[in-house]
């Protein structure tokens, strides 16, 4: 049986990774996808800023998850790191 915690951990890795992989390279494509999906029209400059913000958010989320994973592995290998 899969625990809820394990599902959340998988989703935490999957969502930013999938969003990063599916993020279009050109701002015009992002503006088009948003217009098709929501009906909201965006200018190309707004789509460019939104694309950069999404890119930074995905990289920050994945960096946090990597740092947390490294910290847990280091704490398991060296118990003196986790003692206060």
Describe the structure.
- With 84 residues, this protein is mainly alpha-helical.
- It is built from 3 helices and no strands.
- The chain has one domain (12-81).
- The protein has helices at 4-22, 27-38, 44-77.
- Helix 2 packs across helix 3.
Oligomer: single chain
Portion in strands: under 5%
> Separation of termini?
34 Å
Sheet having the most strands: none
Q: Write down how many β-strands occur, each being a DSSP E stretch of 2 or more residues.
A: 0
State the share of residues found in helices, binned by percent: over 70%
Radius of gyration: 18 Å
Count, helices? 3
What's the overall average pLDDT, rounded? 88
Low-confidence stretches: none
Keywords, separated by commas or semicolons:
84 residues, mainly alpha, 3 helices, 77% helix
Report a brief summary of the structure:
The chain is mainly α. It contains 3 helices and no strands.
Task: Give the helix/strand layout.
Elements: H1 4-22, H2 27-38, H3 44-77
